[in-house]
Amino acid sequence: QVQLVESGGGLVQAGGSLRLSCAASGRTFSRNALGWFRQAPGKEREIVAHISWSGAITYYTDSVKGRFTISRDNAKNTVYLQMNTLKPEDTAVYYCNSIPPRTDYWGQGTQVTVSS
């Protein structure tokens, strides 16, 4: 059974930083692109960033470019999201998944709340 477990969220003031982690179990993702998604209250889930299997290619949605950094450690089957200069509009539940995402891989997510 594949599980993706997100952690590292919390409450932070605007301008602060958080580092999210997503640990995978049940299979290796070393040959898969992985991504971070988020869903804010009343909004649809959106892609935030994704990273190729080797880590050489990354993508960021415009609203987080220059502030967020996605990385991965294939030996640990883990993907990370370093979030700096956080803004209140970054408040959401953050999820990781494969690219393209699979319905059966969605986990519980980790809540990020940014206060102004």
Largest beta sheet: strand ordering = 2-10-9-4-5-6
Amount of helix: under 10%
Which sequence of SSEs, written as H and E, runs from N to C? EEEEEEEEEE
Kindly report the average pLDDT value. Answer: 97
Strand percentage: over 45%
Main sheet: strands, sense, barrel: 6 strands, mixed
Radius of gyration equals 13 Å
Treating each run of at least 4 consecutive H or I residues as one helix, how many helices? 0
- How many strand elements? 10
Based on secondary structure, the structural category is mainly beta
Low-confidence stretches: none
Q: Label the overall shape.
A: globular
Distance between the termini: 40 Å
Question: What descriptors fit this protein?
Answer:
four-stranded antiparallel beta sheet; 116 residues; mainly beta; single chain; 10 strands
Structure overview:
With 116 residues, this protein is an all-beta fold. The protein is 0% helix and 49% strand. It has no helices and ten strands. It has strands at 3-7, 10-13, 18-25, 34-39, 46-51, 58-60, 68-73, 78-83, 92-98, 110-115. The strands form two sheets. A six-stranded mixed beta sheet has the order 2-10-9-4-5-6, with no helix packed on it. A four-stranded antiparallel beta sheet has the order 1-3-8-7, with no helix packed on it. It is globular. The mean pLDDT is 97.
Question: What's a concise summary of this model?
Answer:
The protein is an all-beta fold. The protein has no helices and ten strands. 0% of the residues lie in helices and 49% in strands.
